[in-house]
């Protein structure tokens, strides 16, 4: 193989990653999968995309070796191929935020301008939790919580918040977190809580950033006060990979 042929073939392989990320929906699918594995049906529902189209997007991501699958009975679960893919997705988003003014502007317009309170950083959140000053709620869907969450956080999915709001203590500030910098669940949760007299703020990042910082992660269940006494819980401390 001549040098030029080698270069052309090499960069054609690199381009496979770029081609796999050429669809906004595929980027969203990857972002969701960094929270935990999912079936095609769940991904289709959460991205408001027909199952047929979702399957095609996942096939493209799998061909680029960005996702892997496992079978459980009749269901096929998708997950990132490894932690390098998770880091790549977060780095990709951070690069876009730094280099594309439109991304930062949209984030400010939708998130910051709708929230008069300064979000809580992860470092500040750790300090507040150590001093037992706040109640931390994870407002992601329960399966994401069970796949990994901030130790001590309570699972209160956004769709359950209305009926479970009275389970939250009012004598502490409530900090809500979700999937990351662009997740709107935490914003919706704190807006709801403030309207009902709670002191509430949102975290500026989510579990992927918490994990990347080398902070411990808890696996399993942890229900809010008033939940089942038989809730199972197991903890695993993970260092940054």
CATH third-tier fold name of the largest domain: Oxidized Rhodanese, domain 1
Top-tier CATH class of the largest domain: Alpha Beta
Q: Helical proportion?
A: 40-55%
**CA(first)-CA(last) distance:** 37 Å
Beta-strand segment tally: 9
Radius of gyration: 20 Å
Percent of residues in beta strands? 15-25%
Mean pLDDT reading: 88
H and E order: HHEHHEEHHHEHEHEHEHEE
Order the strands across the largest sheet as they lie in space: 5-4-6-7
Q: Helical stretch count?
A: 11
Shape: globular
* Low confidence ranges: 224-241
Helix-strand makeup class: alpha/beta
Number of domains in the coordinates? 2
CATH superfamily assignment of the largest domain? Answer: Rhodanese-like domain
Q: Tell me the major beta sheet.
A: 4 strands, parallel
**What is the CATH architecture descriptor of the largest domain?**
3-Layer(aba) Sandwich
